[in-house]
Amino acid sequence: MMREHIDRVQQERNHSVRIIMAVLFALFVFFYIVLFQADLIAVMQETWSHGATHNNPVITAIIVAAILLLLQTGLRNLFGIYGRWEAFSYVPSFMLLSFFTDVDTRTFHYHSPTKWIVVLILSFVLVAVVPYFGRLLRQDRKTFITVLLSTNFAVFAVSAILCVALTNHNAPLHMELTAFRYADRERVDRVADVGRRSLETTPSLSALRNVALCRSGRAGDELFTMTQPYGVDGIMPGRYIRHNTRYGSDVWERFVGAEPYGGESAMDFCARLHRSDDSPFSRDLYISALLLDRRLEEFSREFPPQMMGDTLAPRHYREAWLLARHQSETVCADYIDSELEPLLDAFLSIADDPDATSVVIDNRRQLAFGKTYWYYYFHQ
């Protein structure tokens, strides 16, 4: 009688552990998909369906969680994994979740198929082998719920960490997809702020972000506070995700409001747009292109300081005018900026140290002036 009572208590504890682990796994899948991989899954779905369907991350998370829980239940019942070692039956589900999102959105191929073949085989072998370690899996009738949970939590935590570590967690890619999503929804300010504190970017992310800065009127003050590794090509990159309309070239073209001609360079495109539509956006976009292409003299002649009248010009424009005056006596000769002139002198004087190498000069200027047009002009 006592033995039956202990067995019943232990079964209730195992059942409680089973419910807790299932809820934790469902929550992990939900947040993994909705917060971490929603854009990646969306572009995969829309590309593979040729734009016929659009992803709803909540519905996707529910469906994926249900399928993976069914897989876990089948493996648990098939191999008799329960109690203290219940979490081992979740390992293949974790690895499959990680595998399905480890996709390169440029080629839509998996990054390392061989790696995943080995990982998936090992995870299923682990589930099949664990029950045969009878000495490890022998259930103690007096095992407390805390002991059951501690073991399962440890295995669950390791599996979750591996799931995130092995999948596609390329930060620039995720920022790029986020920018596409905001641009498709015309959320200009959100596009401009994507990845602003990161030193990494992609051609598409730079293009969307630079256009957003021009559309919001912030380019003159913020364009060079962000990394610009592509120069003027960072306004109109040549590479896109072309297979659908929500994460492709159509988004950028709708965002700009114009389509470049075949083979047209970014500089020519911005100049043509400015000539055909003298709006604040097209003017800021053209000025950004001139500055990104380091055409200081052309910028200063087409947009002299007098164009601003009594209005204080954006900071990057003032930095460019001062630098143009420093480099040529005939450009902006009468321009005076008492606020920025001492800073330009300090920036230029860093290179006067005879003992400083080019790397040291670069680092010193980046620390003190990394968010100025001057630093971009000489070092990026």
Supply Rg.
29 Å
Point out poorly predicted stretches.
none
- Can you tell me the overall shape? elongated
Task: State the secondary-structure class.
Answer: mainly alpha
Give the integer mean of the pLDDT values: 85
Beta-strand content bin = under 5%
Give the assembly state of these chains.
single chain
Number of domains: 2
Distance between the ends: 80 Å
Q: How many beta-strand segments? A: 2
Describe this structure in words.
The protein is mainly α. 63% of the residues lie in helices and 1% in strands. Strands 1-2 form a two-stranded antiparallel ribbon. The radius of gyration is 29 Å and the shape is elongated.
Set out the fold topology.
Elements: H1 2-36, H2 38-48, H3 57-79, H4 91-100, E1 103-104, E2 109-110, H5 113-129, H6 134-137, H7 145-166, H8 171-184, H9 188-193, H10 203-215, H11 219-222, H12 249-256, H13 266-276, H14 280-292, H15 296-302, H16 315-327, H17 341-349, H18 358-369, H19 373-379
Antiparallel strand pairs: 1-2
Helix pairs in contact: 1-3, 1-7, 3-4, 4-5, 4-7, 8-10, 10-14, 13-14, 15-16
List keywords for this structure.
single chain; 380 residues; 2 strands
Summarize the structure.
By secondary structure, this protein is mainly α. The protein has 19 helices and two strands.
